[in-house]
Write a structure and sequence with these properties.
- By secondary structure, the chain is of the alpha/beta class.
- Helix content is 39%, strand content 21%.
Amino acid sequence: MPEKITVAGVSVDTRHWIGGRRIASDGTFTDHSPIDGSVLGEIARGGPGEAGAAVVAARDAFPAWAATSRGERARILHAIADGVEKRLEELAIVETTDNGALLRSHRRGVMPRVAHNFRFFADWLLTLEHEDFDTRGHTNHVSWDPAGPCVLITPWNAPLMLATWKVAPALAAGNTVVLKPAEWSPLTASLLADIAAEAGLPAGVLNVVQGYGSEIGDALTAHPDVRRISFTGSVPTARRIAASAAANLTPLSLELGGKSPLLVFADADLDLAVDLAVEQYDNAGQVCLAGTRLLVEEPVAEEFTRRFVEKATALRQGDPRDEATDIGPTIHPRQLEKIDGFVRRAVAAGARAVIGGHRKDGQYYAPTLLTGVAQDSEIVQEEVFGPVLTLQTFTGEDEAVRLANDTRFGLAATVATGDRERAERVSARLVAGTVWVNCFFVRDLQAPFGGSRQSGVGREGGTWSFDFYCDLKNTVTAPNGWSQDHG
């Protein structure tokens, strides 16, 4: 297989990055662009051998990296951020070509956020401390000790941003990393390895291995030298990872998507509410946080629907590299088939497609709004992960909260209301890791992020990330117990 491919004019190495070297595999898998289905290249397809080599490289590099001062770790993370910013345009066009998300979004928001992930955790590391406290004259000192090699398994919908959301705090904490990107969008992880090496990150501190699902994943998550596993993806895969990690009691952080509600009360600014609802089609609906269940109070439901349809049908769907495009393709033919299956079964069960409800040419699915859906139906209860929203009505706060909480998920919720007290009451009753009031997708890395119920386990962000990626230690010292005084 060729060692490098050219994607939109950018050279990308198709091999693994293990122990500071490029490593090939006997097998490969084909990477396609969702934009037009074209073949981007053959990617090294790792298995247990590559997984084991990467973990060993991370294990061997760990003592020196853990002993590196906070200041030096922070300096290198800032250097990685510099490298991301230097190659921002290359990263943006490669990621758009590989996963189909909008190029304008990658340029203006996603790739700058990638750099910010490294800068934020580098700076947070330098301020991380817990005030000593006293217990009957004894001093308690809390420290964050690096845990060891971490396996990070990341999804395809925002490949580099979500990877660095994990990589940055893991490295800042003094851990070494084995990153396994999604097989449907592996390319920017390879570029990240180049950037990290150029920034001076020591060999073995960051390793990138590519492969298909359990072929490589089981060997990574079951490895006895792995000290942390962080995964973003589906519930079934999370169950497999948890079972694999159980033998070693390896701590897990799991972010598993959701079926989030968007509640619109009659006192809401309807134009704002409609804008929030249409925003849920972002990235062709392939966003774990998306408020895909529109719950609208009955007195305004008809007017809300009219305005929504007017705005949603004006969205432009097409090539994500075009500045005028609002919605790009779905990631893969299998995902397109899954989305279409959900909609066809919902319509067969009595739902009505107010807009959309059908495939378009290639890997594009029309933005869809379904009404006439039952609360216990598949389309309301299961995550579609595509440009498909449902609309239900409610009367009063109690019913709104009941409908909102009536799934097995609990990742996020959005509330549109003009009443501050109502916003506080409803937010307090919603089962969700994040609640947005009259806004959506405002994310600060200082805040905890994660889900409730089957939307995940644990929280990351700010100090919560370091709590996960470290072994917290409390050192208790007795007073006046020194036999020698060294001055």
